[in-house]
Design brief:
With about 130 residues, the chain is mainly alpha-helical. It has one domain: lambda repressor-like DNA-binding domains (434 Repressor (Amino-terminal Domain)), CATH 1.10.260.40. The chain is about 70% helix and about 0% strand. It is built from eight helices and no strands. It is globular. The protein starts with a helix and ends with a helix.
C-alpha cells in the first residue's frame, strides 16, 4: 500500500471515529468532570464502589436502571438523556418525549425505535396472556 493511500485511509478512519456518538462511559466521564466530581465522590453519592464507576466509564459494564437513576440525580442531569446515552429507553417515557429526543439527537433514533417496539410487543403479549 502506498504512503498516500495509507494516509488517506488513516484520515478516513479518524473522521469516522470522531463522527460516532460517545459511548455511555465517555458521556458519564465527561459529565462527571464538568460537574467537578471525582470518581470516589460520584460513587459515594450513588451508593456504589469507585470500581463500579470506573467499569462504567471504561464501558466494561452496562449500568442498571437503578444506577442510571442514581447517576442522573447525583449529576443533576436529565434522566431521559442519561438513559438514552446508555442505549436504554427511560422508564415511563411518553411517545411524545421519545419523539422529542429523536429530533434532538438523531443518532439515538434507532435505539428509541427498538425499545418502543419491544415495549409495545411486551404490552401486547401481557394483554393477550391476561385476556
Amino acid at each position: 500500500m502506498s504512503a498516500k493511500r495509507l494516509s488517506t485511509l488513516v484520515s478516513d478512519v479518524e473522521k469516522m471515529r470522531h463522527s460516532l456518538p460517545p459511548t455511555f462511559g465517555q458521556f458519564l466521564r465527561a459529565t462527571r468532570e464538568v460537574r467537578s466530581l471525582t470518581v470516589r465522590a460520584l460513587a459515594a453519592a450513588i451508593g456504589v464502589s469507585p470500581s463500579v464507576i470506573s467499569r462504567l466509564e471504561h464501558d466494561r459494564d452496562a449500568p442498571s436502571e437503578r444506577v442510571l437513576c442514581a447517576v442522573s440525580a447525583a449529576l443533576d442531569a436529565d434522566q431521559d438523556e442519561i438513559f438514552i446515552a446508555a442505549n436504554r429507553l427511560p422508564p415511563g417515557i411518553s411517545i411524545r418525549r421519545a419523539v422529542e429526543l429523536c429530533r434532538k439527537d438523531p443518532e439515538h433514533k434507532k435505539i428509541l425505535q427498538r425499545e418502543l417496539l419491544e415495549r409495545g410487543a411486551r404490552q401486547f403479549i401481557d394483554a393477550a396472556a391476561r385476556g
